[in-house]
Structures
1.
Amino acid sequence: MISKIEIQTQMISAVEYVKKTNPMAGSVTNSVTINLVANAQLAVGGSAAMVYLPEEGEFLANAGGATYINVGTILPIYEETLPQMAKTLYENKKPWVLDPVAIGIGSLRTKLLFGFKEYKPSIIRGNASEIIALAGLWGLSGGTDESNVRGVDSTDIVTAAKTAAVALAKWTGGAVAVSGETDLITDGSVVILSYGGSHFMEKITGAGCSLGGVATVYLTGASSLIAALTASSVYNLAGSRAESKVDAPSSFQVAFLDELYKATPAEIAANPFEIEAV
Amino acid sequence: MISKIEIQTQMISAVEYVKKTNPMAGSVTNSVTINLVANAQLAVGGSAAMVYLPEEGEFLANAGGATYINVGTILPIYEETLPQMAKTLYENKKPWVLDPVAIGIGSLRTKLLFGFKEYKPSIIRGNASEIIALAGLWGLSGGTDESNVRGVDSTDIVTAAKTAAVALAKWTGGAVAVSGETDLITDGSVVILSYGGSHFMEKITGAGCSLGGVATVYLTGASSLIAALTASSVYNLAGSRAESKVDAPSSFQVAFLDELYKATPAEIAANPFEIEAV
Amino acid sequence: MISKIEIQTQMISAVEYVKKTNPMAGSVTNSVTINLVANAQLAVGGSAAMVYLPEEGEFLANAGGATYINVGTILPIYEETLPQMAKTLYENKKPWVLDPVAIGIGSLRTKLLFGFKEYKPSIIRGNASEIIALAGLWGLSGGTDESNVRGVDSTDIVTAAKTAAVALAKWTGGAVAVSGETDLITDGSVVILSYGGSHFMEKITGAGCSLGGVATVYLTGASSLIAALTASSVYNLAGSRAESKVDAPSSFQVAFLDELYKATPAEIAANPFEIEAV
């Protein structure tokens, strides 16, 4: 099993790489939180670009170091854009992050999410209910076809999604990050629990979406597991720090983005986590 | 006529219900202020979900405790999404809020807003010019076909919209909230004036849209009149409090959302209002 | 050559006009930064309205004092909306601002941007790479067909775009504003360098887009050159002031919008700039 110190060394490299190279990470992401996703990506040192059209999605898929697909708000054109983009990413061995927001709402969303199975996203990020529902949709263990997704919120706790997360990671060969009070990250062989964060995360929209966007930025220069863990770590660190300075959600969001920007590679790697074999 | 104390008791119940149950209120809303709408809904204790597609709109209409339709930015697909959604809401007796933003711009907007007449929104929220124009479009008294809507801004004062607001409320059997320096809320039998707020409300985009979103959240657990008044009251309270702490609009927006979150049920019910028979 | 004092007098008039008349400036702009564009337009004293549909774009083109077209995120309907809108603006002699964001990504974006050549935008605002690429697309001197645009970022410095900016301004008969560490504004006969700003501008998304939106507001009451310079000046002033008060990007954005609101006509005109003949 990979050692904690080795993981931390790789996390530091990932953060330093991003801060030095300002890598471009393109996205098709939802309109509710699109601004927060971009600002979070910029705060950690990355560069953001968002598009809607098939041809433009393919352009970003090829041009970016890693790409983010978040299905939070589906537009009609996505029926063309997203499968084409995911296919390009998979065939060109380009890493990408999937956020299956609100899985279960609408047949196009379901069709798109089902279709991503064969294009094996490098990182899947969601709350517990979304991860369980995606495993169910893909016919993997730990999944259920009776979704507990309620709009964009989770009604399951993170540990309940462990089996589903491991199964998804084994299928994709990448990593899965389950967001919750404690975050669970797995690559199918190890399970990492990342601690910290803030109760205010649930009182602003887009904490999860922007975490997916930041994981995409780190994925331009790190493995799926390291990118997912680094993103969760900087979120947990910045969340804790921001919470200590404010008493309400909007101030929290400002302070949180500020702390994302301020967090150093060593501080991010030192954010508490535990690792265990699957 | 309903007494002030009875109204306040119901307002307290509405706020407590939302804070305890975190009710889901789905929206189709405009892209300019969509993030603020969601964050305002979360700040008062609700849950938000935004969609574009017909089938997804119908899903939210059925799944949510109440639903918000804001026509601020029209996409081509709305020609299908919005009528279908409004029909579902009406036929299933699900409460919903309409914000007729920028009524008068474009024939599809006009067609959609005209079509909503038969689906009787539980709450209509707008500025004075929008309320007068909607009454005109629906052929009700107090309306005019010579709109004074200028883009998204109002050129009429709230009291000038009283006749139109009462006529609209009588038609729908719900409530109408006219936003302005003083807010006017009516259910067709009583007219309530709600005081407070801030001049900075006009210096940020989305104060009105997010008020509609918050009214939708309260509508999951209260009557149309109470939900509309409670939303106006928390806005007027949070606006006044925020204004006292800042000297410019962007700081105001942050402080305002913070105060939305902090306002207690009793404080919201105690925000100044006056009630009179129509 | 126009004198500095004459320019400053016109800048003061432009800012006063906007603060007094609250002019409406409609936009079709990208979804990533649409909220910031609107809030920046409101902060300086203007009024904002954003649409997507062809007929609505034409409505705003006719109704507004000036109009903003920003191609940052292209939707399928823009194939109809944008050419029709630009044609209306040109034929009705209505001033308008073009922001050729991410020129080079996708064939529809290229086709739309190429088509704008004949409709001669009053102001073109972009970073150095975008200005060079647009001059190239339009077959003007200083342009290149080998774009250095990387997503939405520039890899060229402002002075490298001087020839292209002058050529574009001569073609349109309007002004071109190149954003960078120092901003370059030209009307084809004079070149003005505007100083100030903040390194945090690159750490938030939408500094450029919202500058285009604010230039549009000033264009309702000033010449192309004065509007472009006034917008750059208030951005440089507010950026410098905001930077002195914060230590991270999200606090910067809040402080920056606040300073946009607070800046007086005289202060904006006094922000450092230099003028030279082409």
2.
Amino acid sequence: MLLYCSLVLAQDDVDVPETERTSKTQSCFPDMWDFLKEFGAMTEKQRVMETRLKDGETRLKDAETRLKDSETRLKDSENQILELKSKEKTVVVFSAAAGGSGHIGPFNTDTTVVYKVVKTNIGNAYSQFTGTFAAPVPGIYYFTFFYHAGGSQRVSLTLIKNNESVVTTYDHTTSHDGADNGGNAVFLQLQQGDQVYVRLGANTHVWGDNFITTFSGFLVSQV
Amino acid sequence: MLLYCSLVLAQDDVDVPETERTSKTQSCFPDMWDFLKEFGAMTEKQRVMETRLKDGETRLKDAETRLKDSETRLKDSENQILELKSKEKTVVVFSAAAGGSGHIGPFNTDTTVVYKVVKTNIGNAYSQFTGTFAAPVPGIYYFTFFYHAGGSQRVSLTLIKNNESVVTTYDHTTSHDGADNGGNAVFLQLQQGDQVYVRLGANTHVWGDNFITTFSGFLVSQV
Amino acid sequence: MLLYCSLVLAQDDVDVPETERTSKTQSCFPDMWDFLKEFGAMTEKQRVMETRLKDGETRLKDAETRLKDSETRLKDSENQILELKSKEKTVVVFSAAAGGSGHIGPFNTDTTVVYKVVKTNIGNAYSQFTGTFAAPVPGIYYFTFFYHAGGSQRVSLTLIKNNESVVTTYDHTTSHDGADNGGNAVFLQLQQGDQVYVRLGANTHVWGDNFITTFSGFLVSQV
């Protein structure tokens, strides 16, 4: 009987009809049959689970690699956005008028025009006390200046970058007491700290009243 | 024999040589030995799988946390990009010329110059019917205007922001029927809806022909 | 005895006190009891692990979906950043002065002014040899030009886009040998390759010395 039972353990369980098989096994190990079925199912389930686990681990490893890659790219994108926003936020713009009440000059030496009435000064790069603009960041800047002057004296205005003449405007003495208007404009590539200002030539003059003689500039692009 | 078998179950399977062991067990439970080996292997496999599963769960939890963090950062980056693109897309630029055929003015009161010939009007912020520019978004704007005029009358042009004079250009009557040219420029910080226009002073004139008397502006930066 | 053992297999192991149960089972299968406990624990563990595995697989699938979505969004963000940076990097700016030493003109036909002294030429879109600016990218551009001229001749400068007059500045002959200043500015929407230059009218002149007669432009916005 024991041998029979062991044979049952040994042989495959497919050849014997279910009813007969059950009665026979139950006569010695009534539950061994179920146990073996259970064990077989468990073994099969473990095989399946191992495959699923292996598959899950592979997918997880792949997901981790992709995630790490995404995190690196995301960090890079965040840095680039920060840089774009930082450049966008670097607004440098100024406009100032000479102000005063009447002629500025003539002086017997070249003199920086101090545009005293600030209209706009975003970034605070222009000084209304010295008349000088100092580039807060390296970049391309635009400058333009306009003047009005009576005709009794010459006019000579030169935009200076550090000590270099960039663009100029001037006018001769006009007979019959007419008036002169003029101006100029330029785009300049500046290094941080470069100074730009308008110089009134010796023995020339401009008119300071009514926001008519002006100096303006702005940062076009950081480079 | 059963006891012997049970002993086989009980004792560790390392002491008996493989050949002898197999013959002995097969005499009672021919497959029990294999079964026990299988069960032992299954137990060990389960232990290993559990460790792998636990490890996988830990890694998955970590990946989920990182993924959630990445998603939050990505959303934030997307919003910042949208903001940058929105600002980039807000292009406000106009240029218009006075047009007409001859003198504009003199009028006996201050009069807004209506620059009728639009050269550019991206953003449609300038009205060729009223001569007024209305800021569509808050920001820093640049304005510049130029004029030509015969010398028989004075010229007075003032850039007005709402009701405030910002910059001006003017010229006296010139004897001998000469001609006058002039202009000015300014950067202005505007609120949405602020109105900017050029006012021709009472009893002064400009020349409207040939795109010579112009008014231009653009949005430098949203703030 | 075998039947007894099989009964042990069959019956639930909860009703018999631990000590008695152990002694009884050990009398036939000394380790079967432990084995069965182990098997039961293993079955239960497998059930739990299967639940955890299923749960892990669900979470992994979800994470993979979210990761794929994040990767798509990240790629999209990266492309948008590239576009923003590309536009930011497209800096087109030039300023040039007529140069020379004295009058340019009068000529008996309309002549392009060749501003020979380059002050700035980022993007190399302006040619100091032809005086022509060619738009390297489609966009909104700003141009401004200023001149100085003696009064002995008329002045007529017109900014030309391809063959179309855009804005102009001119001045009459001035008696008493005075001097003339003037300029203009305009924003223009250009297609790639559009050419912009300043034309000196036939029988008119400007002064080329001292960086006083200038031509400048820049790309405001790509569109």
